[in-house]
Amino acid sequence: MSELARRVIVSVIGAPLALFILWYGDAALATLVSALSAIAVWELFRIARAGGYTPIAPLGIGMAAVVPLAVHAEHLGLIRVPFTVPVVAVLVVLAVALFTRATSEHPLGAAAVTIFGVAYTGGLLSFAYALRYFDYAVGQNAGAVVVAFPLALTWASDIGAYFTGRLIGGRKLMPSISPGKTVSGAVGGLIMTVLVAWLYQRYVMIPVARLAFTPTVLVGVAITMSVVAQIGDLVESQLKREGHVKDSSSLLPGHGGILDRVDALLFTFPVAFVLLKWLVLPVPG
After folding, report:
1. Mean per-residue pLDDT of the chain
2. Are 218 and 224 a contacting pair, CB within 8 Å?
């Protein structure tokens, strides 16, 4: 089976399932985000070990998986997570590193990579849940429409960059990190994202969620999201370069690993949440 065929099969199966869970929300979404966070941080630790670090994998994987579940429990009012919890978590990681890593194993680096991994995966992916239950979204399916907004723009940026880059080519964007990416592709991604943002707002976000940006702000939001998505992709490419690995793992045939699929979303979910909080306006209905 060709690489393209494997990519298509995985996408046809995985994308509808993920979209259904985003629409359904609740414990199903929290469980999905928890599982993705655990796998993504495991892949990140795999990259880190290839780069010479020794992260505390069992502790980091457990913490990354717990973060989205804790967000879900707090949303339901079952628990209240005080601001001191992240501080205590850092102290726990440092203490475990003290007793499990010899000086030659660089305990400071082990602790730092572990803490970073939890924040980078479980912390950032949890914004998907926060977007699903966005305060300003009113009406049935409104939350699903809001969380799908950064998804649509991220995919638009990726698709626009891919096809424009292949069609036009030209100067490389950051050849030392990602040799395949071009400046023309980056510009194509920006243009496609602006177009999709306008279509999504006009035909989805306004009718369903009764939310909108002003025209000028919408263009700015779309450009920001495209830039952020491309930065997220490049950041993960840089991490893999440091670890001298091609893919974060081989879990998804034709796609690499989970981290390879969510690298841009790790950036666009939290940025979209902030932009929506600051700039979106209710539409009278």
Report:
1. 92
2. no
Residues 129 and 72: beta-carbon distance below 8 Å? yes
Name the residue among 103, 105, 122, 123 with its Cα closest to residue 56: 105
Segment 105-154, tens digit of pLDDT: 899 999 999 999 999 999 999 999 999 999 887 777 899 999 999 999 99
pLDDT tens, position by position, 43-96 = 999 999 999 999 999 999 999 999 999 999 999 999 998 989 999 999 999 999
d(CA 159, CA 169): 15
Q: CB of 245 within 8 A of CB of 269? A: no
Q: Taking the CA atoms of 125, 129, 132 and 135 in sequence, report the sign of the dihedral they define.
A: negative
CA separation for the pair 31, 60 (Å, rounded):
17
Residue at 61: amino acid letter: I
Give the pLDDT score at 225.
98
pLDDT recorded at residue 221: 98
Beta bridge partners of 282: 211
- What phi-psi label fits residue 25: left (phi over 0), alpha (psi between -120 and 50 degrees) or beta? left
